[in-house]
Structures
1.
Amino acid sequence: MSRKTARHVLYGVFASWFGLTVVGQKLYRDSSKTSVWDKLYLFIPDWRFFAPNPGIHDHHLLMRDKLADGTVTGWQEYSKVEERTLLHSVWHPHRRAEKAVFDTSAELLRFIGQHGHLSGNADPTVQLSVPYLTLLSHLTSRKHHPEAVQTQFLIAVSGGYEVEDEPTMVFLSEFHSVGTPPAAQRAEATGDVQRTP
């Protein structure tokens, strides 16, 4: 095979590959059905990263503590997105944590949507789900009020840079215990209190 023929064959392969890539970008594929395209996507790029449902909301994860006397602290946001700077295009070590909180919140909301859970109603299925436990673990390991005995988290959505859109609460968790109680409380709870005569 001459070099000229080999070049034409190579051009033909790349042209065919490009053509299949263009044809294969079906924006509204039915994800519940498999087709011949699914096997071809091992070799053909699929450029529909955000389509057909791009993200249009920001998720906000907030937390508050219940103190030993029964009072409740104000809400604190733990998923605040940093203002982007030019440096963030090269170095942004906190982006991974931001993305993890965003994805876990979105997964919890998807789980709740599938199970028809309404905020405020205790549902053990939701409380035992992986995204719920992930967020709870993340928040209980954060710094709390010194007198906190329980914590609660809230997920809200907003329009991001659309400042006229008010944030909306979409999920409110139950209260959960935080930290390890002092030794005296643990002993009293288990009945192992040593009483002095």
Note: Confidence is low (pLDDT under 50) at residues 182-197.
2.
Amino acid sequence: LRTNFLLDFFASFIKIIDMAVHVALRVAMLFLFGVGVSLLINLMQAQKNQVLITSEMWLGMVKSGMWVPPACGLSAVAIGLLYPTVDRLLGDPTVAQRTDWSSVIRCAALFVGLNQAAAKIDFMSHAQLSLCLAAMSLGLWFYFDGSRSGLGLALVIALLAAAVNQMMICLDAYRPSVDFVRVRAWLPCIFFSGSVTVGLAGRLLAAQANSATSSSAAKSHGD
């Protein structure tokens, strides 16, 4: 009996360690994804009026908004963990089942394209910019996600993030590289499409982690 207890305890301990490792890997990948996309978007916005990015210009961007990339990384971690959690609570794992890394990469590429369009294309009015980006963002959600839970989460995150960003600008804690009115026009759509993109990555990472954990548990049970 004591031997069986020790074996069960050891198996449970290994399972907990395995789950902790998978969660740590998911957190690290989501954080790096958020930081990388943030730096890429900053570069694209800086290139709107100047094609060549010098080392002095890069250092200036980093110093003026040093907190932005880590904040984007932490936001990506929170969103990437929230999406699969909500799917599990609602019993809707279908999005993760039909998602692969090629879909995540294509969604991320389109998300970066939306940011580039918002930064570089001169629309006739801010309303036209908002409507155009809103249509493209909804198309991004419909093509890659299509779930009601994903739509609701993206809308809530976009509204909250836009409100926080506007508060930071009003408090002079963050200065965007474009005018304030233009930022208010396109930022909610960018947050919406960004939430969809990070949510896809988070769902896929969670599905792969669950699959690996189940395989390890089945192997241990078989042994």
Note: DSSP finds eight helices and no strands in the chain.
3.
Amino acid sequence: YPLGFWFAHQGSIYIFIALIFYYAKKMNEIDRRFDVHED
């Protein structure tokens, strides 16, 4: 059973979710810096 593939699969999912949250956080910071943030 290729356990390494399973770990890589799970890890890629978590990394993808982390990237989504990171991207949203950075966009909020940039929006506030240039005063175009939503209410």
Note: The chain is about 80% helix and 0% strand.
